[in-house]
Amino acid sequence: MQMLKKIKLCCWLLVTIPVITMANVTEYQLDNGLKLIVKEDHRAPVVVTQVWYKVGSSYEQNGTTGISHQLEHMMFKGTENLGPNEFSQIIAANGGNENAFTGRDYTAYFQTLEKDRLEVSFRLEAERMRKLVIDNAELLKEREVVAEERRMRTDDDPQALVSEAFNAAAFVNSPYHHPVIGWMTDINNYEADDLRKWYQKWYAPNNATVVIVGDVEPVAVLALAKQYFGPLKPETTALLKPQLEIEQHGKRTVEVKAPAELPYMMMGWKVPVVATIDQASSWEPYALEMLAGILDGGDSARFSRNLVRGEEVAASVGAGYGLFSRLADVFTVAGTPVKGKSVADLQQAVMKQITQLQTELVSDQELNRIKAQVVANAVYERDTVFYQAMQIGMLETIGLDWRLSDAYVENVQAVTAEQVQAVAKKYFINQGLTVAELIPMPLDGKKPAMSAGARHDY
Amino acid sequence: MITKIFALIISLLIAASVQASPKIEHWQTSNGARVYFVAAPELAMVDVEVVFDAGSARDGDLSGTALLTNAMLNEGAAGLNTNQIAAEFENVGAQFSNSSERDMAELSMRSLTADFALKPALATFRKVLTQPNFPATSFERLQKQMLIGLQAEKQSPVAIASRAFYTNLYDKHPYAAMPSGDESSVKKLNIAALKAFYQQYYVAKNAIVVLVGALTTEQAKVLAEDLIADLPEGKVAKPLADVASLTSAQKITIDYPSSQTHIVMGQPGVSRHDPDYFALYVGNHILGGSGLVSQLSNEIREKRGLSYSVYSYFRPMRELGPYQFGLQTRNDQAKEALDVMQKTLTDFIHNGPTEEELIAAKQNITGGFALRVDSNSKIAGYTAMIGFYGLPLDYLDTFNSNVNAITIKQIQDAFTRRVHPDKIVTILVGGQAE
After folding, report:
1. Which residues 81-110 of chain A have a CB within 8 Å of chain B?
2. How many angstroms separate the CA atoms of A388 and A381, rounded?
3. pLDDT at A446 over 80
4. Which of A149, A331, A363, A406 has the highest CB neighbour count under 10 A?
């Protein structure tokens, strides 16, 4: 399938005939390498535009961590033909919603507009794809905004601090080691030239995927895309070093002391993802997905049933696994023990659940329940154009095929109880385990001597 | 310059485009529940929401009652235990949830419309709604979890600020208490009190039913009737007391070991039936309600880089909901940021918006109308609001013209009469400047 696609590409490129047309999705590629994927959804007269760039925190080096996210902020601060914040003003005047997000493997920009305003977003996105102006004074201000964002999201949130410390321990040389927002010292030291180089390197049509979902006709969207994105010059894209995570040789533990009321813990095991698994084991990520569902797929799943209820050891506990990322990841379990139970009690209870998955086959009833949820969710997800575009853009940008989102249901449905047991045995081993614990420090620890509690000033 | 011409073309387009609002059908069940139905045939699914006037405003002396009553409903019903109820929904891929705020207490479900899913899911929903049995083991567990939730609030400067804000804004009004209660009230909660609360407020006349999905009107009628039939008729909840105006400004500083100071500021704002609603809404959109392009964002974030987020919004409720401002900034910048925020507000009251700002705001609000109702879940949200607060069924149809009718003078007049910076509550939660 992969090869066939490439052959079609070669022959048809000149006339931009759809590379692929499938189930109301049409895929094109412009001569400059820009990929355009259009999904028709005529339920409401709206259209979402998402521009996805293959760059994110996992592309970054020490010393300038978080630069992809800082650049995302700068993308609103002016281009050759737009003043600072003018992008947002134009979208607002057109009744649009807009924003952007940066992840480990991608940076994406979006606008939702009434369907006849699609041209507005194409014109503006094409402009900032190649004509961004990074002004030094604007950067200095926006660096402060990002520093405030980091304080709000991480520095003043004890659980976020644990999560950051956890990733930094679980990943030694993989770039998933550092946080998407970057370390504070790096944020404080970005220079305009760092940003300009980063922009030059990654922001080009041949490193971008434009995803359109809404009440549109693909041919008309293609014409608009050619008009606005067509003239943009491609860039020689940089080759990424593999940075494959080194083998882990034993359990790692981390403690985080921070002002807090409640204890908290994270456990994580090294696991493969769809992008890193070899063909023969391609079912494994779906088995891990199923395993996550068995533990935490709803209020009837094992964590709720046995740890929150049942043993009543967890105030809250959840499992996290994302099968779509660029590099190998961790399967995490995180939670807070109830009053009177310790983090150790909670970890032990979690391990008991893992051991059970390793030693006993899950019942058909449980498997079917998760499968029923997956089938229903595939319908529910179609309620938002934004989410549909997200799935397509994210898959493409991490180097997979967007059609995997259609195949997802089938792949999860094919998982057997034996496969769940097999991945439980293979990956949930101490060798690949990292554990992080929050040790609550008194919240009044830094309180100045002069006052206690609230004071009133009128 | 290209931009300006382009904007002009677009504004012409705005005037030309025709808005289509979802068509809301309305009727009552035989025991008096009001039903609001929007047919959405495209996806084979349905959203079912039952909303009661049974939020924390009805808590009385024991705050937390409404929330825990609501949370207990799916813990045991008609002989099913918690595990069985959860499994009954999830076996067929249905998503059940419950929630309780100040005005509304809600049970909701999303399900496929295929018989194999919808029939059993509705049967379970009906049991939870009409035959809950408040098991003691669940009560004890949920009470403990509420206490842990209260502890968690203490490690969040935002939550601390929010609690202090409501306490000081509403004083003796029932809106003053948090839906999650406080430590002493949660400890006093008991099953008898929850059952009494349920019997009084979870009744047909105090309920609205919202249905959005792939059903015919006939199917919707049968579904609603069947769902609600076993609820007693009961009575509509009594009107709430009026919210008293603030008489003086109040500034409260709470020490907290964070690197940022969180500032929350405000006063009682508007109700859902407020004659000034559209003038205040459009005015605030310009001042602090339009994200990155608002005056506050421009002053605080764009010009000075003081905060990642800064906002102001009216939250219209049964009675006057809060008019709330907020930002968060490094401790040593708290005073500067608060000064700028206050000055931006007073300047706005004094000067009003410019003609240009008003046009831009109207373009933003009305031009984005289609986005407000582009999914079943958003349509369900608006329909619940219209039904719960008894707004006219054509609320969405007339929304754009109501916005377009607002003038600068009306905004200035409404802000002058209704917003009083000299009687505002300001909460600061954070560490000392280093």
Report:
1. 81-82, 84-86, 88-90, 92-97
2. 7
3. no
4. A331
The rounded distance, in Å, linking the Cα atoms of A55 and A173 is 18
Indicate whether A371 pLDDT > 80: yes
> Cβ A93–B363 below 8 Å, yes or no?
yes
Q: Residue range B136-162: average pLDDT? A: 97
Give φ, ψ of A76 to 5 degrees.
-100, 0
Can you name the residues that pair with A47 across neighbouring β-strands?
A113, A214
- Over pLDDT 90: what percentage of chain B? 94
Give domain limits for chain B. 2-228, 250-430
B250-430 belongs to which homologous superfamily? Metalloenzyme, LuxS/M16 peptidase-like (3.30.830.10)
User: Which one from A72, A245, A366, A396 is the annotated catalytic residue?
Assistant: A72
* B250-430 matches B2-228 in CATH topology: yes
Confidence of residue A406 (pLDDT cuts 50, 70, 90): confident
Q: Give the bridge partners for A53, in sequence order.
A: A107, A208
A435: enclosing H helix or E strand: strand A433-441
**Does A17 score more than 80 pLDDT?**
no
Is B3 a residue whose pLDDT tops 80? no
Lowest mean pLDDT among A161-175, A405-419, B2-16, B183-197: B2-16
Q: What is the ipTM of this complex?
A: 0.93
Residues 152-181 on B with a CB inside 8 Å of A are 152, 154-157, 164
E strands in A92-190: 97-102, 107-114
Q: Provide the token pair at A97.
A: 């919603």
Q: What is the CATH number of domain B2-228?
A: 3.30.830.10
CB contact under 8 Å between A149 and B308, yes or no, is yes
Q: Is A161 on the interface with B (CB under 8 A)?
A: no
Token pair in block for residue B235: 């009575």
Phi, psi of A398 (to 5 degrees): -90, 5
- Provide the token pair at B119: 């029939």
Strand partners, B109: B48, B96
The reply to whether residue A297 touches residue B152, judged by beta carbons under 8 angstroms, is no
Q: Do B364 and A155 touch (CB under 8 A)?
A: no
CA-nearest of A425, A432, A60 to A249 is A432
Name the residue among A37, A453, A47, A433 with its Cα closest to residue A250: A433
- Mean per-residue pLDDT for A439-458? 57
